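Can anyone check this?
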Amino acid sequence: MGAIRSYLTQPCRAGFAIFAAAAIAWPLLSQPAAARGPEGIADVAEQVIDSVVNISTKQTVDMRGGEMPQLPPGSPFEEFFEEFFKNHKGQNGENPHPRRVNSLGSGFIIDPSGLVVTNNHVIADADEVDVILNDGTTVKASVVGKDLKTDLALLKFKPPHPLKAVKFGDSDKLRLGEWVIAIGNPFSLGGTVTAGIVSARNRDIQSGPYDNYIQTDAAINRGNSGGPLFNLNGEVVGVNTAIISPSGGSIGIGFAIPSKTVMPVIDQLRTTGEVRRGWLGVRIQQVSDEIAESLSISPPRGALIAGIDDKGPAKGQLDPGDVVVKFDGQDVKEMRDLPRIVADTPVGKQVEVVIIRKGKEETKTIKLGKLEDTSEQAAAPKKETAEEKPVVKRALGLDLANLTDELRKKHRIKEKVKGVLITGVDPNSSAADKHLQPGMVIAEVQQQPVSTAAELQQRLEKLKKDGKKAVVLLVVTADGDPRFVALGLQ
């Protein structure tokens, strides 16, 4: 799950073992009815319980190599392997013959023909997938399609008898404090109903490019992954995916993918077996208050273009330093809005992109490309035509030098990177606070290219005379990854 793979956060899936837990039952009779939740919860649970299924996966793994296999983040087999390789070594430190391992998760039926939605990490790397219905019937299932970026998967099985499907609701209509119901397979115990409220919306937990999670305090535990989150109308408003927990059990912070994100992904998997997303071909970053002030953007908003893919649709239309404030008629209020809007836009569509460039608003028309899972970003390297002496200047708490072939080789800086080299950083400066480091290159000052340390210093002096309080630098790593950094001039 990317950054969410910290010791505090776990994908809510069950491993091979069944976890034991102790609980203290507090008397509820003395509590008011409102504290126990609305009475409609029981009606909803009875209405939808048969549509919620358990997902059982099997995988054969060769244990003889002596090393724990490399598993993707969130793999349902991860805990089993950790325990096995810790406690089940052979006489010579080697592991025994291939083993058959199991894992359990959750899912829900969206079509009586036998279509089931679950999380991708529940079925990732599985050799076999079984769907276990609420009445205990086990049926073999196949994978129709899966999407790694949203951690969703669609399964299909042949119904042994008539099935009951659930419908999606509108997650955008959820309100903070609204009651929701989670049903799933926690700790491999089978169908379990828990209830809570919507604690927050639009949560970014750094697990992927389209994070927009619903946060709930409904008890979500390992094994709940892929299970539905219902509103009190019995509609699915989310897919339970992750929890924050130091122990693996619920501490009242769980996350669900909103139905608004789920529905278009599942529709595409259902019809084509894959997800086609729009692609703009840009790298973006947040518009901080300092950057907004320096670029004359008030109030701070939009997505700042930090780099352009040489083969992307935006090439020739957008430039680094542009701030996208509207895309295809939708406002871009903050950086993370843009990837979701672009991804949801049909491939090949001509869209209007409203940008702020050097303080003025402009509109560009761009035809969107198709986002590939692995897109190569190539740039034709150009050799330096002349060498300059490595003149060292000091400004903004930085030691700066002209970028020579010798310094480029020393810091392993790619040929395509141009600008002024940072050779030192004052640890007490704001530049250090912004994580600037020796070996990085300043490519632009206030959206204007710079090639020497002297030129950079002259630009800074002019900005001070013009009354600017901050300067925006385009800083590039040795590998060519750019980002904008605002530093105070006073």
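Reply from J.R.: I decoded it. Residues 1-9, 15-35, 65-77, 374-389 have pLDDT under 50 and may be disordered.
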